[in-house]
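Batch manifest, entry 17 of 40.
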Amino acid sequence: VATKSPEKKVIICQAGPYILPRVPEAHDKVTAFWESLGNVEVHLNERVIEFDDMLQEYKTDKGNTFNAGKVIRATGYKPNTDFLKDANTDPAIAAALDEKGFVKCDPNLRLHGSSNIYVSGDIVEDAYFGKTGVTRSGERFPERLAAVAGAHSYVVTNNIKRTITGETLASMDASRDPFGQPVEISLGLEKGLAVVHGDLAPLYVGMGFDFGVDNEEFVKYGCAISPNVPGLKDYISDLCAKATYIPEAHEGLRQFGAMDPKVLDPLAPPMPPPPGADGAGGGEADQAPADPAPEPTEEAKADVPEAAPAEAEE
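Output type: structure tokens
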């Protein structure tokens, strides 16, 4: 709105003292970008507490009243799992929900306490998601992104087959994420915030995901305002849509999931190291299971995708 309609004012109320607090260096970069637009007004440590959509009046806990034709409530999310708590649900399934309503599962993404019910996507508990770097509060928070859901999908679809065939299951290990979860955050139609570790950014560029930013920005700050984020997000969205009806696109997404470092698949071939990494990361030692895995069957081998570029996530 701010870039396409400069005559309109955009008001942002942030309940805390920082914009995007999960990315430590994001606040100064994002607020500077908004200030450069000239029509964005930012209020920190202020929360809207009264909503009157009919009169289009919105009051804050600091006594301010804002008038707006459009309001976007971006105050977080909760899992859509209430239906698992009703009287028709097996008590064992209802018991697998954590205090926030997410579904508890084991590293093979099986429902807690179950051997043949699998869980995938945003309803999975926090433990099986990549996290951003250490935040201003010293914590690390899970990022529920399409890339991680794709990794879940790779694990679950393979494990459903292997539950039937008796082969070794794939698993998720979120601790195998030393560089933090790459994230692309929209800041309108023209720019966005790219959040990626400085050691990973050149790898993404080599795979065609060029952020259009000097890598020193990522090395120093771990994030940068990027003119290419909107286009990259459109590309990924288009790929996800095509995966619903084009087999090659679907297989491409499966390969993205297979290359996620948080995925441990004892039946997959060793991942090649990144260019110039001298064998570091993704090699045979990283992929080998703790115990010797059985020789995969011909069917299992057919399910294993070839290595392909990883997805630069939103």
